[in-house]
């Protein structure tokens, strides 16, 4: 919507205020500024509002708007007078307006910082969260324009509007004056208002996905008359899965006399269908999609699955088509999966939806699966099916133009049928939000992620995402901080998902190993050590072991308090004739399931080699899927003690007692419902390494869950030694001298002053352009001193000879100065400095930087080439807590050096943790500090010394995670 000539050129139309939002019921709407072109829309909107709502708005009967009213409500300067509208299908369904006022309540301009605000929502759309969304956006607009408070007059009977203000989470004051309620809201965001906003976002986005996965009716647009097309395939899959709702085939090419197709009603358009359609699956060529979307929007369809290709994966023109597709769908209040999608599946008995190209609907299960690749989706569905695992839901998002992995996390968080969320992602559209949502979801159920396209420049062409400069190793570390189980391959994702969906979480890393092969047991033992687990010596049952022997040994291990998990290894038995018997899988599965039937709180995994049917039998023992036919030898039958199995009653995903933990309370969302107890499926693996790797991931995740139950905090003592206002003044002064929007690096003295405001002392250095200056500097600092080059190509490169240490007197200093210049070049090239020696210790590096996509990141590692070559650096998101700081220094592989490795003295890690917290506070309080590097930081047995610091300031990048709710536009 462009501004008209009547609007002030000094306040151009603020298109950055436009936003798509998800409403409480899962539908979408658009919020935008009101312009002079909206007069007719405003009048039409007002005519559809009830007399009661008009009375609540104007405190008197007000049947229609006068021409003067229309002019007033459509002419704004976007500073002192602002109006926003919520639209669906281009028509208004709600409006809000503020007028800046002075202390007497009269119209005013800046510097007045209060405004009167008023809302009006069409009665048919009340209860959808329209006013709440408008309040978030108008408050953000007001803060941008220097307004700090809203004042509102509300009639006492207008309970809905009073509730909107009360539930917003803002600090407010209320009084009763002249027959109305006078409300004053402070617009500064609070912890409560942010929690309220995110809670509403979670419920709305979860509901939007739920509407897609559980429709009451589905129309396949593009279902062809001939067999084999995409649309016809989806239609047949819907019918084969037994979809419980109503199904329609729609194709404008149908003959007028065609009444049914594959037994369902056939229509030429949605308008011919007598009832509302909830979900439309669009399988027509890209050039016909806009027509289909318009037909859907005009007939009240709630959501779309667009299988059609020919969008962003085809280049710039296709990307613009894709954006227009999203704009068109959202204008009607619809969300999109796709385009170029593979489809969606919901196995719930009350739905049984297979609106995908998958020829066979998976069995019901406890795993939710999201993928951005159709090919990977096919592979995952096939792999899970082969191993007898079922799904709760499946979404293949294709180009992910709208519904994304973030939406899937919102849905999975509260879905009672999902215990484990598996995601294959090729891009992260909003990494900050993903990390936040993943942390909250992982606190109640595991989240397993495979990240494809990990290397720079390899983002799939169909995905338009913010550019991130942080390396993939950093992304992995940040996911781990959020509790995400990140694995490298889809095979590892399935392996981990099967264990987490079928077994309780381990209480620790102690592993019992038992089986009938000593060699396979040793391989498993070695794999456990390689993954950081603590295996007990394997128990060899010998090749003569029967299924009953396995059952007894497993039961004993489960009852043993010295182990936290059990891995069973098995090879085929050797029969009396000396031949291996491969038909014992079902018998062994029955024996193992009986051993765990008592409800042990320990996870069990099976490693088997060429035992036919074992994995299927284990799956069938506790799965709703019907087992495939299998053959069991007569010898196996005679060894079977019984065929009945008892369901295991341990709740999946819950840490074992006595260390069972409760997910931390989250004020920003409705708590996820607890899953009902159910049988535990014992996962089987064809290789020891795969089983152990899955178990190791479960151990690390369980540890994270226990720690997340008691979140870290920022020590209060930092507040007494931090001058936030002083630092802000310094930053403002420095940026005012840097007209370059890229900002500027601070000098050494400027960096020292800024860091000093946060209690970070940087040891001073003095320039030494010649030997005499060096001697003078040493006299001022005191011997012993260090002589260092600061030229960019030699900085922090002691291995190149640019540093001379422990210079005890003038003679040593002059000699070192001469050696340095003779070896490396002239003083003007080397830029030498003199610095007083620091106490001996371990050289480390502490950094903080702001990435436009991921946010502020705190990093730590040891100084020196080996750490850089090996990538031995740990990362945490800012703001960091005391727990984050402690984990950060212990996460690097070289951490033992800090704690007394090989008899050396342990260094002062407490001082190091405090330094990390201070730097975290600095970049969190002042986003203008876009990068800080403290190098080296020498950590001694008592205290530490920061020898070098570099700081860069720049205008802070825009943050999309703290403003009002809005859907991304990719």
Description of the structure:
This protein has 970 residues and is of the alpha/beta class. Helices cover 33% and strands 21% of the residues. It contains 28 helices and 41 strands. The strands form 7 sheets. The chain has an 8-stranded mixed sheet, with helices on both faces. Strands 11-12-10-9-13-14-15 form a 7-stranded mixed sheet, with helices on both faces. The chain has a 7-stranded mixed sheet with strand order 17-16-19-18-20-21-22, sandwiched between helices. β16 and β17 (353-356) form a beta hairpin. The longest helix is centred in the first third of the chain and has 23 residues, at 191-213. The radius of gyration is 33 Å and the shape is flat. The chain starts with 18 loop residues before the first strand and ends in a 17-residue tail after the last strand. 48% of the residues are buried. The model is unreliable at 1-10 and 623-679 (pLDDT under 50).
Indicate the topology.
Blueprint: E1 19-22, E2 28-33, H1 39-47, H2 51-58, H3 67-74, E3 81-88, E4 91-101, E5 114-121, H4 130-144, E6 149-154, H5 159-166, E7 172-177, E8 180-186, H6 191-213, E9 217-221, H7 230-241, E10 246-250, E11 260-261, E12 264-267, E13 279-282, H8 289-298, E14 303-306, H9 316-331, E15 335-337, E16 343-346, E17 353-356, E18 364-371, H10 374-386, E19 391-396, H11 405-414, E20 420-425, H12 431-442, E21 447-451, H13 472-481, E22 485-487, H14 490-502, E23 510-515, H15 518-530, E24 534-535, E25 539-540, H16 547-559, E26 565-570, E27 573-574, E28 580-581, H17 585-595, E29 604-608, H18 614-620, H19 634-639, E30 684-685, H20 688-708, H21 724-736, E31 744-745, H22 748-756, E32 765-767, H23 771-781, E33 785-789, E34 803-807, H24 810-824, H25 827-830, E35 832-836, E36 842-851, E37 855-862, H26 865-870, E38 873-877, H27 882-890, H28 909-925, E39 929-939, E40 944-946, E41 949-953
Parallel strand pairs: 5-6, 9-10, 9-13, 10-12, 13-14, 14-15, 18-19, 18-20, 20-21, 21-22, 23-24, 23-25, 23-26, 26-29, 29-30
Antiparallel strand pairs: 1-2, 2-3, 3-4, 4-5, 6-8, 7-8, 11-12, 16-17, 16-19, 27-28, 31-41, 32-35, 33-34, 33-35, 36-37, 36-39, 37-38, 39-40, 39-41
